[in-house]
Design brief:
The protein is an alpha+beta fold. The chain is built from twelve helices and nine strands.
Length: 395
């Protein structure tokens, strides 16, 4: 699949294309939700913005967007539709994964920089050691975008002759990439929200995966710099809740103005309406600033040749904490707006109903769970983090 020269290839152009697509995504949100996966033509519309190529380096002919720029694009797409933003955020990991593969192998896997990946990284499968690679089997949940992905990357515990490997220590795990044709999608995605993400279960049965299509986030094989870091795939995730929260705020404000009288009177003069909207705006602005501030500081250190260890403890902890806070604050904002609009919120034509369900569902992801709070708190206190990868720690 050759690279499409028409696809935007700079940060400014990709962001502009994402913003231009958002209204169309909004118009199709009901259809996307009913479809329970991203319609094929919508996938192509997202691909056409350049979103899937964001992580590919300039050496590959990609745009090599910074983490901040990637998050802004995800935010713009999620402003149109939460599920579309979610699958864009997941699908663009192709260019990030390329850093952890040998260059020759990565270029064989990704002949186009607009190809997408999906899969669950937690090791729920089994990878049995065989000459030249592994035999991979298992069932994974939450394969967001797996119905349209080109490659599926899955986590698995390593075994040898069916027994945990190594035999004399903690069992190792690994990430393995297989073509989408090697998986079976199980249609399990009947959910409260993010319905259009198609985050179905999938199975892989005794598929051979060569050594060179395996990776761990502890080993960078191809590339260097800020995007060649173990937690890089988590950075742009806050773009989804931020985009949804901004969409909900703008929609409610439009509704309030529309129900007000020219020259004064109506909803716009309602004290409760004014205070509630201002509180939500304050929370949104503070949360968004925290996300981008933490990422900018991280990028500044890494771009100067530093490592994650060169961040202060507070700076490093701010990365997963700001992500968590973005998810939880977006849910809180949408819930308050839902209450503010009262019975106008409860009918399915209202986008607030969908945004409420989308934010409730996305907050069940591990990046929005108390495990992140424990991880950051433990790290700040010199104790043992429960999810060290969220801090960029792989040891």
């Amino acid at each position: 699949m050759p690279n499409n020269p028409v696809v935007p290839n700079t940060a400014a152009d990709i962001l502009a294309a994402a913003k231009a697509l958002a209204p169309q995504l909004r118009e199709r949100s009901v259809e996307i939700e009913k479809n329970r996966r991203m319609p094929a033509d919508v996938v192509e519309l997202i691909r056409g913005t350049g979103a899937f190529r964001m992580g590919f380096s300039k050496a590959w002919g990609g745009p090599e967007l910074t983490s901040v720029e990637q998050t802004e694009v995800v935010e713009a797409l999620a402003y149109g539709d939460a599920s579309a933003g979610w699958v864009a955020m997941i699908g663009m990991d192709s260019g990030l994964y390329a850093n952890f593969l040998d260059e020759v192998v990565a270029k064989e896997m990704f002949p186009s920089i607009d190809m997408t990946t999906a899969g669950l990284l937690f090791p729920t499968g089994k990878a049995d050691r065989v000459p030249g690679g592994y035999r991979l089997s298992g069932r994974w949940q939450f394969g967001s975008g797996v119905t349209h992905a080109d490659w599926v990357v899955s986590g698995a515990f390593i075994t040898e002759n069916g027994q945990p490997w190594p035999a004399d220590g903690p069992q190792d795990s690994i990430l393995l990439a297989v073509p989408q044709s090697d998986i079976e999608v199980i249609d399990t995605w009947n959910t409260t929200g993010l319905a259009g993400s198609g985050s179905c279960d999938y199975t892989i049965t005794d598929v051979f995966v060569p050594d060179n299509r395996t990776m761990t986030f502890a080993t960078v094989r191809n590339g260097e710099g800020p995007l060649a870091q173990p937690e890089v795939h988590m950075r742009n995730m806050p773009g989804v809740p931020l985009g949804v929260a901004r969409a909900a705020l703008d929609w409610v404000r439009e509704q309030v103005v529309a129900k007000s009288q020219p020259g004064g009177g109506g909803w716009a003069d309602n004290w409760r309406m004014q205070v509630a909207l201002a509180e939500c705006e304050a929370d949104f602005n503070a949360t968004r600033s925290a996300v981008y501030g933490a990422m900018r500081r991280q990028w500044e250190v890494l771009e100067a040749g530093g490592t994650m260890d060169d961040l202060t403890a507070d700076e490093r902890a701010a990365l997963p904490l700001s992500r968590l806070h973005a998810f939880r604050t977006a849910r809180s904002i949408v819930m308050r707006l839902y209450d503010l609009m009262q019975t106008g919120s409860i009918y399915r034509p209202s986008p607030l109903d969908r945004w409420l369900r989308d934010t409730m569902t996305m907050c069940q992801h591990v990046v929005a769970q108390d495990k992140i709070l424990q991880t950051a708190g433990a790290y700040l206190l010199g104790s043992k983090p429960g999810f060290p990868l969220s801090l960029g720690i792989t040891g």
